[in-house]
Protein 1
Amino acid sequence: SKAVEAHIKELAMPRARFEAELVAIEKGAEAVSAGGTLVSQRGAETCRFMFCANAGGEMAPLAKTASGGELSRTMLALKRALVEKGAPCVLLFDEIDAGVGGEAALKIARELKSLSQTRQTLCVTHLAQIAAKADAQIVVSKTNSGERTETAVRLLSDAERVIEIARMLSGSPESESALAHARELLSAKD
């Protein structure tokens, strides 16, 4: 809990609090008594994540209280804490950028880049700030041919990355200002 909370604070939530609680399972269809303790196929306890984003607020279940952006950053912090304990080898993030932008997006991008130094890290993203930090960028596209939808993936060259990042930024990959911004993001060393 302490490690997750420390990482959350680094992801633009300086006053957030996090706690993992072990809660005894309740009597139900899956639970049976074993020596006076209720157990299920999953054990005698469940884990509940408690969260508060703001100073002075009440801790509440993460799933019920966190916004999309807060949830995304908390899950990133949780995975970071797990990596520090030696697991897992491959990390997959599917739209970890949900509900965030600006400064928070840059902090998430830096955190993902840091994770990628010791773990294979794959990230599905729609944010240019995150895509620009990647070592390699793949575009996923779908086409419809009659009644069938096909998905294709393609590794982008350095020149194609500039165009794709510009498209992600502005929707207009031919825009000179978007292309300049894309080059700036891709060349940033932080």
Protein 2
Amino acid sequence: MGGRGLIGGRLYYGWIVAAVTFLVLLAAAGVRSTPGVLIIPLEKEFGWTRAMVSLAVSINLLLYGLLGPFAAALMDRFGVRRVTLSALTLVAMGVGLTMLMRTSWQLYVLWGLVVGTGTGTMSLVLGAYIANRWFVERRGVVMGLLTASTATGQLFFLPFLASLVVVHGWRTAVLAVCAVVLLVIPLVAIFMRNDPHEIGLRPLGAPADAPPQAPGGGNAVTAAFAGLGRGLHSRDFWLLAGSFYICGASTNGLIGTHLIPASMEHGIPEVTAAGLLAAMGVFDLIGTTLSGWLSDRWDSRYLLVWYYALRGLSLLFLPYALGTQFVALAAFAVFYGLDWVATVPPTVRLTADIFGKRNVGIMFGWIAAAHQLGAATAAFGAGATRTWLGSYQVSFMSAGLLCLIAAGLVIRIGATSKGGVLPTRPVEVGAPV
């Protein structure tokens, strides 16, 4: 084995783990993108309102975020392979049973609670956990690629699912998503490893004398809440969580859930609207990977300022784009797509810098929980606003203004009263406040 833990001088096993993780997150992204193509079919078949369907999506997104820090603690305690396999099995069960539902409460239980719990265990925390456990060098690039799996999931799934809904009905689309999740399970069982030291390696780029990272002990719930306690006493945590709340409200909750029905209401066919979101996925794959590369080289705070400001401007432009020719909406897809989840790599970098690499899973888990709380708020809020006002315009404009506020929040991260920079000695979860 080479100095960087190479196998046969060629391939570091961490890249295999990262590839499997990419596929897991890809499948999870396919699951999370499904409601966007189901909203109108469910309204037509069951007579449910937009607010009723949006409530199930909101529950799903809320659990997706809230379970992140507990999932990180469970990964520390039991290993990432066991936790991921359990989550994939739960998602497959919830998605499969959705085909049999007949009432709205079943939608809330299956898609909201069951699927939300499963995908919440495979949230953004999984990518942060793998990137920080296996990589010292190229960590930002790896995090960018894993984050971009969300966009790639849209690229692969949305047009395909929309076509299935139009030609064969929504249950066929749900069955296809369930099959994809089941296909990923054996890959995790065979190739996933919990830690490089488990197979006699060390993180890529780590010094030769770096000690192994000990597995977490004790109660996972206690560890997760200990991280939250540390965060609540940190101004930087509030700034990161507040800006990430706005990030979730302006992406997954709003655009990811409601752009397709909003486009259809402006005369754009469902498959075309799904293709539009898929196109965003292509550009986000580029933008997020580039963001990971930049976060290894530039001040992450300034990157976030640019990302939130540009996203805000694009959302303020969206109502105009929907009301004009398709070319304006395509321009929005390119501009917004480059910035969809580009905020994640620099946010993870700042979390590791402030709270320490050892704590990044749990601490980023709570920050990601704020992200999904924002997504859940926007998913239900935009649906309710559409039901009451008959339009999405207020929701899109409000999200754009919030993004401009987020740009002002992130510049203060890590700054002291004298205009200082990020601390050089990260705090540890469990240390005295």
Protein 3
Amino acid sequence: GEVAAPLPPESPTPVSVEAPPEAETLEAAQVESDARMPTEQEILGDYDRAVRIYGWFDLTPLEDSGETVTEDGTVYRRVSAAECGTMEELRLNLRSVFTESLTERLLSGEEGRIRYRDIDGALYVTGEGRERGSGRGSVTVEVEQTGETAYSVNVTVDLMEQEDGVVTGMECWSFPYVLENDRWGFSEFRLVY
């Protein structure tokens, strides 16, 4: 066992030119900026996007082409919406505003009324949308910092009499907005109407 195998010529020892030290500091700065504290505007923007994306699972399914497939006794319609043609795109949309666990709950169908499924690499949907809840008035959305890396988006909805539009009370919801794996997102969410 005295013979040492020579290093294959294809793998030369890297020289400093190939890996300048700046690359490392740039990467560290990049990570830092991803995890920086968001502004109130950014959080409110994420809330608006979260309402739209959560709506795909609760209020209005993504647009479909009418083409159907039956899997496990369930009829699925092929999604034709431009923003989401594949399960991967749907997951990326979800991960842009929700934590990993909430994303998984939505994709598995544990949460929401509308389900999506990957069939032969295409995205399909099953389930129907619903009407927006009636008896809801104006909505107030406020951001509150609850910890070093945690916020809460507090949403207040006026409840109204259908006939005369008199405000009879209010509902308050609080959605945690947290830092998880260097990304900000909501860990709990629902539509308030």
